[in-house]
Structures are given as structure tokens and as C-alpha cells.
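Write out the 3D structure for:
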Amino acid sequence: MSAVAAVRQESRPAQGARKAPDEFAALDRLGAVVTLKRDETLFREGDAAQYYFKVVQGAVRSCKLLRDGRRHVGDFYLPGDFIGLDAEQDYIFTAEAIADATVVRYSRRSVEALAAQEPKIGRRLLSLACHSLNAAQQQMLLLSRKTAEERIASFLMGIAEKKGGMQVTLPMTRTDIGDHLGLTMETVSRALAHLKHEGVIELKSSHDVRIRDREALADLAEAY
């Protein structure tokens, strides 16, 4: 068993949990396992985009440091997410581990050769890249039109839909969420507290959220 396959085996869901088929099993032989400590950098903005990555365990954030010193968090990558599919010659953001993380690194040249041999993989990777671009467009709408509470609702719905359940685990900090949504840490905390007060969510801890009223949360998320 390859190192990549061993990591995938360890990260399988518990018995009884729903498991989607792995469309990218053929990539296993191309990948190398990379482990990251919290806040460790996977790559930096401007580095040559020689690799694609897939998160296996933990979480990774993409970020840019703006000219005025503020930080913008572009996206969060959770287990199963690919990083760098939309890169051209260079990476346009810095990628950092939110917490201890394990990722698989794939040489772009090797992946492109495999995609040429197996068009189904190439089409699926293209679909994921298009989805990433669509998500970026949705993020622009979110930042330009939605209220703080609507932004938080959209964020929680996005995580919930990715996980497929009512229980949402947030490995990122309130500051990370704020830098992603264009809000202060205090505003993020107030919006979450208000959603809790309204009975829409339950805050089991600072990182664990349970959605109590999915319909109400979706209505807020889809305000525009």
C-alpha cells in the first residue's frame, strides 16, 4: 500500500457513515504525503504553481496580505478539497494550515499526463476548477450586498452542505471567519450570538455549531 493510500485508509469515515466513491483513486500513485503544523505555510503567493494539493486531514486557508496591512482569507479547504486547480503560472495566494493538517501533493505535470490518458479524471478536475471560480464569484456578491448576519448564514450553509449534515465543525478562528467575510471578529461573534438567540443555531463550543432551523438559515443565506 502506498503512503497516500495508507493516509486515505486512516481517514475513512467510521463504520456506518456514508462514504462517497473515490473518483481520484488513480491519482494515488502520483501523490506524496505532506504534513503541516498549525499556521505552517504550504506555499506562498508568487511561488511557481508546480503542484496541486488535496486536503486529507485538518484544514487549510488561502490568504492575501493587502497593501494596507489587512489580511483577506479567500477560502477554507477541508478534507476532500483540492487546492491550486485554478492556478496559472504562479499561485495567486498563500496557503497555510489552520490546524495540524495532512495533504497530498501532486505534480501538475504528472496529473496533466494522467488526465490525457484518463479523460474522465481531466473532466472532473476541470469541473472542480470551474466550481472554484463560481464560488469566488458568489463570494464577491456576498461581500458586496449581504448584511453581517446574512454573510454568516451563507458561510454556515456552505460548510453544512459540504459536510452533508446539521452539525458544523469550524476549525478556523473567529478572526479567520471575519477576514474571509469582510467582518471584524466582534461582528462575527455578535452575529453568531444573535442566530443562537433566535433559535437558528446552537453553539455547542467555539468550534462546534449545530443547525437547529435549516430553513431559516437558508432563507438568510439566500437573501439575494
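The helical segments are 3-10, 108-117, 119-145, 148-163, 174-181, 185-197, 214-221.
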